[in-house]
Amino acid sequence: MKKGSENMDVPVAVEMDGTVDLHSAVIVALGCNDKGVWRDCREALEAALARFRSEGIDVIRRSSWWRSQAWPDPSDPPFLNGVVIVRTEHDPHGLMAALGRIEDAFGRRRDAMNAPRTLDLDLIAYGRLTGDIEGLILPHPRAHERKFVMGPLAEIAPAWEHPQGGTAATLSTSSPVGRDANPA
Fold first, then answer.
1. Of 21, 122, 146, 179, which one is the catalytic site residue?
2. Which one, 42, 44, 66, 160, has least CB within 10 Å?
3. Which of these is catalytic: 62, 117, 132, 146?
4. What is the reported pTM?
5. Helix (H, G, I), strand (E, B) or coil at 42
6. Rg of the chain's alpha carbons, rounded to an integer?
7. Pure H helices in 5-109
8. Which of 108, 110, 142, 146 is catalytic?
């Protein structure tokens, strides 16, 4: 059996109850452009979501998957990206550690910057925390510039407000990076 493949054919069911307080939302972005041992990037991302619960992370909203050219090198394989809102008891550093463990389990390598990756998990926001929190910059310092993050976020939380200004819906139309990003 492939590592992490226990639930890979079953999309993660999530509660879409409309009761998410966007001021306290914990937002995680997912990306893949190297399928690794999975059939394709969609399968890898679904398997990653299935792993969240074992790390104490409950997905409460999720976007569709979005496809975009690789950035900054469009000659690399295209990316599949999505965004989830989660509930967790982890503090921001604990959540980053849990996300790192999931990436490691999926064969994530960090030997070359912006190289194709089997799994990329980014903490986009942790409620309204802002600034440098012991080496962790929140919200993610470039998320508002990336359509492949803001587009999926606008699907599930269009009114979410970036601390520096702009809603997810507005930022998804003005993000300069990944302008080709669209639902897959």
1. 122
2. 42
3. 117
4. 0.89
5. helix
6. 15
7. 41-52, 92-105
8. 108
Helix (H, G, I), strand (E, B) or coil at 14: coil
Helices (H), 59-164: 92-105, 147-156
CB-neighbour burial class of residue 130 (10 A; exposed 0-12, middle 13-18, buried 19+): middle
**What tens-digit pLDDT sequence spans the chain (184 residues)?**
333 333 333 344 444 455 788 989 999 999 999 999 999 999 999 999 999 999 999 999 999 999 999 988 899 999 999 999 999 999 999 999 999 999 999 998 777 777 789 999 999 999 999 999 999 999 999 999 999 999 999 999 999 999 889 999 999 999 999 999 999 9
3-class SS shares of the chain: helix, strand, coil, % to 5: 25, 25, 50
180 is catalytic: no
Is 122 catalytic? The answer is yes
- Of 120, 132, 142, 179, which one is the catalytic site residue? 120
